[in-house]
Amino acid sequence: MTTPRQNRRRERAARGIPEATVARLPVYLRALTGLQERGVATVSSEELAAAAGVNSAKLRKDLSHLGSYGTRGVGYEVEYLVYQISRELGLTQDWVVAIIGVGNLGRALAGYGGFASRGFRVAGLLDADDSIVGQEISGMTVEHIDRLEDMIARHGVSIAVIATPAGAAQGVCDRVVAAGVTSVLNFAPTVLTVPDGVDVRKVDLSIELQILAFHEQRKAGGPDGPAPLVAGDAPPGTKQYVEPVEA
Amino acid sequence: MTTPRQNRRRERAARGIPEATVARLPVYLRALTGLQERGVATVSSEELAAAAGVNSAKLRKDLSHLGSYGTRGVGYEVEYLVYQISRELGLTQDWVVAIIGVGNLGRALAGYGGFASRGFRVAGLLDADDSIVGQEISGMTVEHIDRLEDMIARHGVSIAVIATPAGAAQGVCDRVVAAGVTSVLNFAPTVLTVPDGVDVRKVDLSIELQILAFHEQRKAGGPDGPAPLVAGDAPPGTKQYVEPVEA
């Protein structure tokens, strides 16, 4: 005898969710939140795909991994799909984040509204610079980096955001990992080495610019004249609004 | 009679480059630049794929769109591949960028080394706040937003980076588009509407955090217990280092 929940568990374990799908779920979520704010109750796969900048076949396949198939002629129920994606991504619980490095970028991240609205609670800010330690930023007092391990333990930090200069990043990373943190978001312009079982994602703010440069060049006719984009990755009429979709 | 260049042009036009490949080229470029800095002259597709966080079959297919196939038993020549990708992305020429909105994020972007090293030259900073206008930031003087059209014309700005509050972003976007800019990088937490022929890419700094949350949840056993990732998207032994790859 198996319960429905056990069945679902088994199904999911057999099926897994492709990394590329996981990376697109936040983009769907952002589009759905926008619809929700405008009071939209249901959405077709075509509309949602256009808003997220993918084609609708890919969208339907991605959502099928969550067991969400929509209703023919009606589409997807926005509120329920927001719940399903949030649940799958783990956003129905709170995640405690510490930001290490309080330069301009650290300050921008500390005040970034997009974190709190997705369940990421910034518990603390840390810096090595005595002229920054003690400052009030976005309602938090910057603590000295010496307090890193203590802060992680005290607040149950599960994600460390590293926004230090490149030279300091690996040392900070080693310390947060030693303190038990297994997820690191790296804004420092360097590659971090971590042991198995620790996830690092690196943000490179110039990547989107490089993709824009490709399109600019194509519009201008270079390097080998305008080449058509391969159809199928963007629905017609949405090329002017390309959402960043990670895969 | 056709010249080899015409042939290449025709081939590329027939073939196109998939959007997903375009989005991964900057990630390969970053990995290759890292190899170059360490003095590595050739790299196997497996090594490069691992450094970029994709599987090697996908890497080889992506690079084949550039006409780059590597040499069996030797791999790819790092320097030449850097050139090929840079050329394809349009990074062998300079792009002039203006940053509009000089809060913490705008300041962070103004001083971001990753732009200049990829051929993005920040020509100017603009803000509507009189207490910010006139400040020196990263060697530039912040100009009043009234000077926007003038600055675009004067410097030949081709990419506008919008780092204003959400409420101001669409108005700024309309103005840069009216002034002839056809590429917009949007950091404001809002969706921008643009006419056909204008590319907008939106950066959401919380997307990477959401992907980390998914993995944290999986490590913790929820929502339905740890599910295996589908094999094939990440080479073995690289799961601990997941590069953001846009698709």
TrEMBL record, chains A, B:
> Which terms are listed as keywords in the entry?
Cytoplasm, DNA-binding, NAD, Repressor, Transcription, Transcription regulation
User: Region Disordered: start and end of each range?
Assistant: 218-247
Task: Spell out the Pfam families in the cross-references.
Answer: CoA_binding, Put_DNA-bind_N
Q: Which residues bind NAD(+)?
A: 101-106
In the UniProt record, does the keyword Transmembrane helix occur? no
Question: Where does this chain mainly localize?
Answer: cytoplasm
Q: Any idea where the CoA-binding domain is?
A: 90-191
Protein's GO biological process: negative regulation of DNA-templated transcription; response to redox state
Cellular component terms (Gene Ontology)? cytoplasm
An example molecular function term from Gene Ontology annotations: DNA-binding transcription factor activity
Cell compartment(s), UniProt? Cytoplasm
Q: Where along the sequence lies the DNA-binding region?
A: 27-66
The protein's matches in SUPFAM superfamilies, at most eight in alphabetical order, are given as: NAD(P)-binding Rossmann-fold domains, Winged helix' DNA-binding domain
Which InterPro entries is this protein grouped with? CoA-bd, NAD(P)-bd_dom_sf, Rex_actinobacterial-type, Rex_DNA-bd_C_dom, Tscrpt_rep_Rex, WH-like_DNA-bd_sf, WH_DNA-bd_sf
Source superkingdom: Bacteria
The keyword Repressor is assigned to this record? yes
> Belongs to which family?
Belongs to the transcriptional regulatory Rex family.
> Which PANTHER family does the entry mention?
REDOX-SENSING TRANSCRIPTIONAL REPRESSOR REX, REDOX-SENSING TRANSCRIPTIONAL REPRESSOR REX 1
Q: How does it assemble?
A: Homodimer.
What the protein does? Modulates transcription in response to changes in cellular NADH/NAD(+) redox state.
What protein name is recorded for this chain?
Redox-sensing transcriptional repressor Rex
Q: Which organism is it from?
A: Actinomadura syzygii
Instruction: Quote the gene name from the UniProt entry.
Output: rex
